[in-house]
Design brief:
Blueprint: H1 3-16, H2 21-25, H3 28-39, E1 45-47, H4 72-84, E2 89-93, H5 99-104, E3 110-115, H6 118-123, H7 128-132, E4 144-148, E5 165-168, H8 174-187, E6 194-197, H9 209-218, E7 227-230, E8 236-238, E9 246-247
Parallel strand pairs: 1-7, 2-3, 2-5, 3-4, 5-6
Antiparallel strand pairs: 1-9, 6-8, 7-8
The protein binds S-adenosylmethionine.
């Protein structure tokens, strides 16, 4: 099919189903161009936090190995940051199965985790099993407080200036990440508090501009230099004290070898 035929076919489809326009607007190449136009490509730098595992291995548990599970290294990152920075109060947006909350809980005094209420998930037409899986791993943990609401309208004021680390893992659209990041700035206990975003990368190497645009739009420009993609994970992190970093590199030769001893038990 030539370009003109393709154009008219696409045009007809969009007229029939206007929501198809979202596919263009959310296309990563389109978003990457917007990001570079607004912030410049050189902004993106990466850090390797996993050198610390050479001295002190960590146990990632629970791990569901199910659809949508974060990477093992995402939970390791959260544990490392909590340990190295003596995090007492951890706040996350996006509970789902409670996997991230449960992985962090042994390392902090208090976990606050916010999710849309089950009834809202029902109204959104979500599958019953998906709804039932919410809080599966975290609901019985003593130091985990489950909060319910939409991060767009939830009253965060009781948690303002209380949190050492804020993990943003709810709605990953640019607008929602921008909003949740502005909220996270208010939750910081001090300027030393850390922010982590999940799904700021589409895989262990490639950036995800849909999320990165939200992060960079929300943060004051002077903080941009301390935002890093985390090598081997899907996360980006804001480290107020900075860290040794390098430019991002796609399809890099491996420079680190992970060893994972896999065990499992039936529930
Ligand atoms: C990717 S999952 C979180 C995974 C979890 N952090 C983990 O790693 O185990 C995202 C969750 O955010 C919730 N969510 C989406 N939009 C939200 C919003 N606006 N406010 C609160 N929760 C939201 C969804 O219901 C879903 O359970």
């Amino acid at each position: 099919m030539n370009k003109v035929s393709k154009f008219f076919k696409a045009f007809r489809l969009i007229i029939k189903q206007p929501s198809l326009l979202n596919l263009i607007l959310k296309d990563e190449d389109v978003l990457k161009r917007s990001f570079i136009k607004e912030f410049g490509q050189q902004q993106l730098r990466q850090i390797d936090v996993f050198a610390s595992l050479e001295a002190s291995p960590l146990k990632i548990t629970p791990y569901a190995f199910l659809s949508g599970s974060s990477m093992v290294t995402d939970f390791a990152l959260l544990q490392i940051l909590c340990l190295q920075n003596s995090v007492e109060s951890y706040f996350e947006i996006g509970t789902w199965r409670g996997e991230s909350a449960a992985n962090v809980a042994p390392y902090v005094q208090q976990v606050f985790t916010l999710n849309l209420p089950d009834v809202v998930l029902q109204q959104m037409g979500m599958n019953q099993d998906y709804i039932a899986s919410h809080r599966f791993f975290s609901q019985k943990l003593n130091n985990v407080s489950h909060l319910f609401g939409d991060s767009a309208s939830f009253d965060f004021s009781p948690y303002h200036q209380k949190c050492d680390l804020i993990f943003i893992d709810g709605d990953h659209s640019t607008a929602a990440v921008e909003r949740d990041t502005r909220t996270a700035l208010l939750l910081r206990k001090s300027e030393q508090s850390i922010l982590v975003w999940h799904d700021a990368k589409s895989d262990a190497e490639y950036p995800r501009y849909e999320v990165l645009l939200g992060i960079y739009r929300a943060l004051p420009e002077e903080l941009h230099k301390n935002v890093y993609l985390v090598k081997h994970s899907l996360c980006a992190v804001y480290l107020p004290q900075g860290a040794p970093s390098s430019t991002i590199q796609m399809n890099a030769l491996p420079n680190r070898l992970f060893e994972i001893a896999v065990t499992s038990k039936a529930l």
